[in-house]
Amino acid sequence: MELTSRMMDGSIPYDAQGRLEPVSSGLGAKQDDKIERLKEVPLFEGCSQRQLRSVAKIARVFDVAADTVLTRAGESGDEFFLIIDGTARVDVTAEKHVLLHPGEFFGEMSLLDGGPRSATVIAGTPLRLLVISRRHFSVLLKEVPGLTQTLLTTLSRRVRAAEEQAKRLGSATHS
Ligand code: CMP
C-alpha cells in the first residue's frame, strides 16, 4: 500500500513528536506558504507565479519519520515524490543502495510506464516530501518547465548506472 494510504489508515510509524502532517492543499494562507516553499526547490526555479500556483494546488507536503518505507519493490505505485529536506535511501538491489538528497526525486518510473515499483525507497532521515499523485502527474509535467527533460536525463543516468553494475557483476562472476 502506498505512503498516503498508509498515512490514512495509521499503519506507518510516527516520529518522536507523533507528527506526520500533510500540509493542507486548500486555498488561503497555507496555499501561499506552500508557494513560498516551492520557490526554494531548484526544480521549480523556472516557474512563473501562475505555474507555482498550479503546482501548489496539486502538491501535498508530508513530513515522514526516518525508516518509513515510501515505495516497495514489486508493488504498484501511484505517487511521485520530491525531497524537500532529508535523505532517502533507494535499495536498488541487496548490494546496491543509492542516497537521494534534497531536490532529487523518486517514484517517477511507475508513473511513467505503469509498471510496479522498481526499488524499495526508505526514509534515511526524517524527510519532508512533496507528493504528487498519478492523476496530477501530467499537470506537473505541463506546468514545470524543463521537468520532462530532467526526468529523461535522470532516467538515462539510472539506465547507464544499472548497465555498468550489470557489467561489473558479469565480469566478477566470470573471473
Ligand atoms: P519507481 O520504480 O516508481 O519506484 C522506485 C523508485 O526508485 C523509482 O521509481 C526511481 O525513482 C527510484 N530508483 C530506481 N532505481 C534507481 C537507481 N538506480 N538510482 C536512483 N533511484 C532509483
Into which percent range does the helicity of residues fall? Answer: 40-55%
For the secondary structure, the number of strands is 8
Number of helices: 6
Strand content: 15-25%
Give the termini separation.
Answer: 41 Å
Ions, cofactors and other ligands present here are: adenosine-3',5'-cyclic-monophosphate
The mean pLDDT is 85
Please give the radius of gyration in angstroms.
17 Å
N-to-C SSE string, H for helix and E for strand: HHHEEEEEEHEEHH
What low-confidence regions span 5 or more consecutive residues with pLDDT below 50? 8-27
Structural class: alpha+beta
Biggest sheet strand order reads 1-8-3-6
Q: Name the overall outline.
A: globular
Describe the main β-sheet briefly.
4 strands, antiparallel
Quick structural gist:
This protein has 175 residues and is of the alpha+beta class. The protein is 41% helix and 21% strand. The chain has 6 helices and 8 strands, in the order αααββββββαββαα.
Overview of the molecule:
The protein starts with a helix and ends with a helix. By secondary structure, it is of the alpha+beta class. Strand 4 and strand 5 form a beta hairpin. It has a 4-stranded antiparallel beta sheet. The protein has a 4-stranded antiparallel beta sheet with strand order 2-7-4-5, with no helix packed on it. It contains 6 helices and 8 strands, in the order H-H-H-E-E-E-E-E-E-H-E-E-H-H. 41% of the residues lie in helices and 21% in strands. Residues 8-27 have low confidence and may be disordered. The chain binds adenosine-3',5'-cyclic-monophosphate. Adenosine-3',5'-cyclic-monophosphate binds next to helix 4 and helix 6.
